[in-house]
Amino acid sequence: MPRRRLLAVALLGTALIALALPAKDTPVPAAPAPELGLVLLEPDFYVGENFPDLKAFADPTKPILEFSAAALAAEKNPPRLLVQVTLRKIGEPTIELAGDPALRPEFAKALHAKLAALPLPHPPLCDIHFRIQSLAKGEEPFAAAASYRPRLPLPANDAFVAAALPAQLALLRDWARDEALPLLAHQAASVDPKFAGVIATGRKVQQLDLSKPLDVEQLTYRDPDFWRGVMEMSPGNQLVGAMPLLLFVANGEIAKAGHLYSVLRPNTLDKSSAGLLLDRLGGMLGPFTRQHNDRIQTGIKLHDKGRYHEAIKVYRDILADYPSSAWARYELFFSTLFRDKLMPPRSQADLDQHWEAAAAEIYMLDPLYDVQMTGSRGKNLGSMIDRLTLRSMEEKPPSDPIQTFATKAEIALHLGRYGEAAQTYWQLLFRKGDAHVQLINDKQSRTLTTEQLITRYLYCLEQLGAPQWKSQFKGDFTEAFKQLDTELAAHRTQ
Prior knowledge:
single chain; alpha+beta; 3 domains; 53% helix
């Protein structure tokens, strides 16, 4: 989940007052007014990116705190107060009130009327949520908010977990389109001009119509500026590297995003903008994946009972809700074979024919899907070994995480997924420890040297149409690339 912070008022300048002091000429209440503080519901950089001049945020929101403080000071027995504010990029701001104990209706109505009349700013990049909340010293604001009535849910988290699968998919896409990508693209486009690749990538994303279908590979992996931007960032800063992942989410291609997430998040600085956004994404991927998998398991149980028509309906319903589900597409194919009495097959050639037709669509949805029904020597036995290795690592991950990354990189390379492979090789160059690779049929692991990692990284870039960057590295890679061509051909046609 994203890191939320109780902002020290100093971060926002003196325009905000940390304590709610009684206004002049207000009668002194019988009980002291509770202390008020500002709590952001998103990481700090949301405010910083939307309002580079923090006064543009602080000055218009100062009256919210002042009016709230004055209203409490006028109460004989002031309640604890929570004011939740949503500043919207498009549309009017939203103000919600809660109290502990519950606010008197007259108090709530009068305060809400005052706050609703304030001329609040529109963030230029994405919506911003914050709270003005009564806080005791050392109190954790989100835990304390549970006692307020009515309970005000956190805008993103609670709604997402409770949503059905298609609604979760829509929320994921909206988050990437309306929040994550605008923030990262703006940050990338605003860096020092000497980082030309970072700026070019940020500006390119800013110009996209994210509501339309996207060719993510063409927009990123096949753009030399993207790779320049990746190499311009310091290790662990995925400001550029996270762009394809988030574009896949915006496109509704959650499996592709998930593969990148498993590689990038462990190699991302925790307090960086990309790290905070990836944490937020991880908090949504978990519930989405669990709900999706539970529905798949419902179909599998029906299949195992021989109720193939019902299983097929389950998978079709999943695909209607989440069209990019490779797993649902595979199970649909599998149950259809049984429904149509094509299992067991009349011949291997017959099974191969049925599988190849289905596999084209399954692997389009998820090129790194970890199941392959058949494999023939000299044709696709190598890819079957690769996918079996992915399945084995999913069921029993290696104790060494670097081995997981290195093996995934090799498999992506074998399968021609050069973008994902290149991103993973690049991460490995900055990890301490040997990069061991072990496919499921290997008797022992092999170690990739630094020179081999660089060669593989640059080879992938050449396959993607960005050969110019190998000139930035020492050495003549012509012979190394030829040797790698030979190795890949041998694996793919074993």
